[in-house]
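Model: Ready when you are.
Researcher: Fold this.
Model:
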Amino acid sequence: MRLRLPQLALLGWTLASLALSLLPAGALGPPRAVNAVVFVGFGPGCALMVRLVGSWSVSVCSVLAIAVSLTVLILSSQLLLIIGAWSVPGVAALVALVTVVLTVTPSRSREGVLD
């Protein structure tokens, strides 16, 4: 399986964001906080967008990407709250896991799946 350049860039961003989330609070200031918010909010959506953009229209991909990102964020936070293990690195790790899975798993062609 060969990864394309957008997938490699997304994996790099995912690993960097996960590493940044492990730093103590207040380290690196506002740039780290902005990256954390953007990654946790849009990381899985970016992976889904890269995956689907050739198969469907950009507007459909955008709506799906935003919905998936917010769903992953909410469900991962709820899961960690339910089991009593909520933490910023924990949420970032679950979001990173979903982002990596969406990025590296092979996608199926649209032909024959929904037609």
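Researcher: Now this one.
Model:
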Amino acid sequence: MGKLMIADQRWLDNLESQNISKEDEVNFWSTKNSSLEEGDYFLLTSGREDGNCKIEAIAQFVRNEDLPVDEAWESFNQLNGAVNYEEFKQMVSEVINVNNGLITCTVLNNYTPIEQSEGKSLTYKIPGTGKLRASGIFISKR
């Protein structure tokens, strides 16, 4: 199973600039838990306003955690998709109304940015499951 999620472009850019290993845990923070099982795939797009949505990264779901913003930073640092704590707080405040002081950390591993080929459909092979084809935001598993 998998899920297509819209991510902040800064989050994607910040993670792409880092040397992330397959074992590193990345925090896709939001306001709600993801109803996925461990190992399920996350497909990430920036959901660009021009309607030209492309799958920009793929990762696997590990777990959900509810943490205060400062603890999320301590746990994941730059793997929160921000270069420093101040940027992280700013990004969170732009996206989430943190009423109770907690954010939902959707913890991912096997984070892999996907190179884009202009004018071509994206095909990404998921180990052991065949191919996952994406064109725009249409996704079908074959």
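Researcher: Key takeaway?
Model: DSSP finds three helices and eight strands in the chain.
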